[in-house]
Design brief:
Blueprint: E1 5-10, H1 16-28, E2 34-38, H2 44-54, H3 63-88, E3 91-95, H4 98-108, H5 113-124, E4 131-136, H6 139-149, H7 161-177, E5 182-186, H8 191-208
Parallel strand pairs: 1-3, 1-4, 2-3, 4-5
Helix pairs in contact: 1-8, 2-3, 3-5, 4-5, 4-7
Bound molecules: ligand Z5A.
Length: 210
C-alpha cells in the first residue's frame, strides 16, 4: 500500500481537532490524496455508536460494553473507510485510533491490556498506524482549554482529573515503548509552534514516499 495511516491522540483539550485540518492540508500540498476521519465514528453506523458512547447520562455504562462498542465502531471504520483508502493509495488522517482504547479503556478504566490486545488482533486485521502523533500536555491545561470552550461536556469529559492522569500516563508509556510509531508532540505550545513540530515529523515521511 502506498498510502500512509496517521492518527492523532491525546487527552481532552490537547488540540487534536484544531490541528487535524492543518495536517491534512500539509500532506495534500505534497500532492497526496487525504481522507480525514475520526474515532469513534467515521462511518454512518460508527457515528451512531459515537452518539451512544459520548451522550452524558445518569445510567452508568458497563466498562466491557464501552470497550466492545469502541471496537464495533472501529471494525466498521477499518472495513468501510481505512483499508479501502489505503488500497487506493490515499493517506488517512484519523482523529484517534486504537491507542485511544489502550489509554482510555485500559489506562483510564483499568481494563486488562491483554483483553484489549485480543480484540485489537481480531478487528484490526494487521492494520495499524504508520505514525501516531501524541499531543501531550498537563491534564490541568487541557481541562482549562475545554472549560473555556463552554460546550456541554460529553460522557468522557465529565471524568475526574485522576482518570485523565491515568490516560496520559498510559499514552506516554506507549510512546516510550514504540518511539518509531508514536511521536510525542508538545501540545502545551501555541498553535504555530505545534505546526512546526508537526511539519518536522511529517516531512521525512512524505519524502520517503516520493
Ligand atoms: N475514546 C475512548 O475512550 N476510546 C477510544 O478507543 C476512542 C475514543 C477512539 C471522544 O473523542 C472521546 O472518546 C474521547 C476519548 C474517547 N474523550 N475524551 N476526553 P474526541 O477526540 O472526539 O473528543 P475529545 O478528546 O474530548 O476532543 P476535544 O476535547 O475536542 O479535544 P481536542 O480535539 O484535542 O481539542 P480542540 O478541540 O482542538 O481544542 C480544545 C480547545 O483548545 C479549543 O477551544 C481550541 O481552540 C483550544 N486550543 C487548541 N489548541 C490550542 C493551543 N495550542 N493553545 C491554546 N488553545 C488551544
Amino acid at each position: 500500500m502506498n498510502g500512509k495511516f496517521i492518527s492523532i491522540e491525546g487527552i481532552e483539550g490537547a488540540g487534536k481537532s484544531t490541528q487535524l485540518q492543518f495536517i491534512a492540508d500539509y500532506i495534500r500540498s505534497h500532492g497526496k490524496q487525504v481522507v480525514v476521519t475520526r474515532e469513534p465514528g467515521g462511518t454512518p453506523l460508527g457515528e451512531e455508536i459515537r452518539e451512544v458512547l459520548l451522550k452524558p447520562t445518569d445510567q452508568a455504562m458497563a466498562e466491557d460494553t464501552e470497550l466492545l462498542l469502541m471496537f464495533a465502531a472501529r471494525a466498521e471504520h477499518i472495513q468501510q473507510v481505512i483499508l479501502p483508502a489505503l488500497k487506493r493509495g490515499d493517506w488517512v488522517v484519523s482523529d484517534r485510533f486504537v491507542d485511544a482504547t489502550f489509554a482510555y479503556q485500559g489506562g483510564g478504566r483499568g481494563i486488562n491490556e491483554q483483553r484489549i490486545k485480543q480484540l485489537a488482533e481480531w478487528t484490526l486485521q494487521g492494520c495499524n498506524t504508520d505514525v501516531t502523533f501524541l499531543f501531550d500536555l498537563p491534564v490541568a491545561l487541557g481541562q482549562t482549554r475545554v472549560e473555556q470552550r463552554q460546550q456541554q461536556k460529553d460522557r468522557f469529559e465529565q471524568e475526574k482529573q485522576e482518570f485523565f492522569e491515568r490516560v496520559r500516563n498510559c499514552y506516554l508509556a506507549r510512546a516510550e515503548a514504540e518511539p518509531k510509531r508514536i511521536k510525542r508532540i508538545d501540545a502545551s505550545q501555541n498553535i504555530e509552534a505545534i505546526q512546526q513540530q508537526l511539519k518536522h515529523q511529517l516531512l521525512p515521511l512524505l519524502e520517503s514516499t516520493r
